[in-house]
Amino acid sequence: MPTAFSEDDLEFGTVPDFSEHDLQFPAKVRRSSLREQVREALRAALISGRMRPGVLYSAPALAEMLGVSATPIREAMLDLAKEDLVVAVRNKGFRVTAVSDRELDELVEARLLLEVPTMAAVAEQYAPRMDAELRRLRGLARDLEAAAESDEIVTYLQLDTEFHASFVALYGNTEIVKIVRQLRSRSRLYGLEALARAGQLVDSTREHMQMIDLAVANDRAGLEDLTRVHLSHVRTIWAQQGR
């Protein structure tokens, strides 16, 4: 388990092989506070592999990249530490927590058990009252495709989390939404960048728009099948490095 630490532990450190292009706020995803925006930008960098296990990162260096003070960086680190995503190195900074292959497999299994029936239920319960939110989801799906085409991986991951959490939220169970967000945060998708560079990320990204179409068609079985396929990417093409 990560050790407890204070804000003073996050003052120093180095950020090797890491630039301002690896950490930024996307234009399309905004949280209600600067602390939340910083936390979600860091979270996306962890998931994508822009921030790697074993590498030492400092609050001042990350603050400079994001163009903010060190205070929201420290606050975001404390939040991520509570989720066991980072650990402190006293007087130097923090390191990303490693996740084993077995843990990643178990995370995907948990997501399949939770998200497949929930998405199916949304399709079964579709009604015109959902149209306004589904229009917003279509906008997110288009933004996801644009991010995939332009290799904006950190932005892509933030939009992707927003899309899936919002889609599941249509079912009406806030606890499920919280769990889905937590499970996604612990994923590691190191193959996204290589896929984007190869121009192949857009293909799997188009599945988001297809999900919306299946929900509007009340196609429960179709959405179940597509959700399974979509989540399978987490441990296959989205996880592979060196493509």
| Number of H/I helices | 11
Strand order of the largest sheet: 1-3-2
- CATH H-tier superfamily of the largest domain: GntR ligand-binding domain-like
CATH topology of the largest domain: Four Helix Bundle (Hemerythrin (Met), subunit A)
| CATH architectural arrangement of the largest domain | Up-down Bundle
Q: How far from one another are the termini?
A: 33 Å
Helix percent band: 55-70%
Series of H and E elements = HEHHEEHHHHHHHH
Shape: globular
Task: Give the overall average pLDDT.
Answer: 85
Question: Number of DSSP strands?
Answer: 3
Low-confidence stretches: 1-16
How large is the share of residues in beta strands?
Answer: under 5%
Topology of this structure?
Blueprint: H1 34-48, E1 56-57, H2 59-66, H3 70-82, E2 86-89, E3 93-96, H4 101-124, H5 131-149, H6 153-169, H7 174-185, H8 192-197, H9 201-205, H10 207-216, H11 220-232
Helix pairs in contact: 1-3, 1-6, 2-3, 4-7, 4-11, 5-6, 6-7, 10-11
